[in-house]
Task: structure prediction
Amino acid sequence: MKSDVQQPQRMEAISLSSLKIDKFACLFFFLGIVLSAWFLHSFIL
Result:
């Protein structure tokens, strides 16, 4: 019974950590796109 009670908490912690990682990944991806676009813009002009 104790293992059944602890399992959902573990899953919630894993999902929360993965959500944080996804947020940071999206942020870095967005920053990379903005920086690459800025470099291309400054290189062309």
Summary: The chain has one domain: 1-45. Residues 2-44 form the longest helix (43 residues). Residues 1-45 form one domain.
